[in-house]
Amino acid sequence: MIDEFYNIIGNVGTALQHLIFPMLFFFLFAYLLKRKQAVTAFRTCLPNSIFNISIMCFNLIFISLISSHLKWLYSIDIGENLSQIWASLPEWLVILSATFCGDFIGYWRHRFEHSRILWPSHAMHHSDTQMSWLTLQRFHPFNRMSTLIIDTGLLMCLGFPPYALVANNLIRHYYGYFIHADLPWNYGAWNKVFVSPVMHQWHHAAEPAAYNTNFATIFSIFDRAFGTYRVPGLCHIPLGVPYNVGGNILGQLLYPFKLSSYLKKSKAPQAKSIDT
Ligand SMILES: [Zn+2]
Ligand SMILES: [Zn+2]
Fold this sequence. Notes:
The protein is mainly alpha-helical. It has helices at about 1-15, 20-35, 35-65, 80-85, 90-115, 120-125, 140-155, 160-180, 195-205, 220-225, 250-255, 260-265. The chain has a domain at about 80-265. Helix 1 (about 1-15) packs antiparallel against helix 3 (about 35-65) and helix 5 (about 90-115) packs across helix 8. The longest helix has about 30 residues, at about 35-65. The chain starts with a helix and ends in a 13-residue tail after the last helix.
């Protein structure tokens, strides 16, 4: 019990250390783009960033406690037949395939999170009105668990080896930081292939036409293929959810436990796709 406690504290300490490099990286980007206004932007998003780091620590403790009871899941060899195919391919191709399949799975999982049944536990991610790279850490623990189980579970069913699962998680994690950063960047013609920071800002936009669009994390081709792509230019409109999803951190943690949260429609009806 004491060992488990020290392990969890150690995990939280390591996670906080892992924020230092991205923090320096994104602050440098902000300074290059905004110069002295970067300090003002930092102050503006500080309260939301404290919320995001707090929920990251909470999730680490929650997942550490849960995952110690779920270790048996990793011993199930569900994709044994398919794993022989991956073993015959070069590692870079296996990692690319895992990332591509992982984003396809993530696209549909994220779309499902915008349905009435999962929206109450996904709303916390959308409640950040001052989006920054740290918004990636703003997830309800239920949302963190569903992502872990659905994404990693289905990739395991496809027989991907552990190194490809780790690589996929790292790529999605760091690319996730990038698309949540406050960067006014589109990719021009490459928008049709990759998700840009502006494309994901539109996913967080608080206007009805933007709801239920731009679900992918890395490959925008999934949004284009399934009719949810929408990037009408740079995103300068307010971000967040246009109604109260619990207020402070405790209120937002309790939001999925309230029946009334499930009676609201998700942010809005399905939006049409608009290619630009
Ligand atoms: Zn979402
Ligand atoms: Zn997001």
